[in-house]
Amino acid sequence: MKRIVHMTSVHSRGDTRIALKECKAVLRAGFECILIVADGKGDELANGVQVMDVGAATSRPSRMTKIALRVGKLAKALNAHAYHFHDPELIPVGLALRRTGKTVIYDVHEDVPADILSKPWIPAWQRRIVSASFGRFETHAIRKMSAVVTAWPYLREKFQTLNPQVVDIVNYAVDDELFIDVPWCSRPRDVCYVGGISNIRGIFELMTALESCDARLILGGDFHERETEERVRSMSAWNRVNYLGFLDRRGFAQAMARCRVGLVTFLPEPNHLNAMPNKLFEYMSAGLPVIASNFPRWREIVEGHRCGICVDPRDPREISQAILRLVSDSGEAEQMGANGRKAVLSTFNWSTEEQRLIDLYERLLEGGDAGAARVHELNRKEA
Question: Are the C-beta atoms of 244 and 349 separated by less than 8 Å?
Answer without folding.
Answer: no
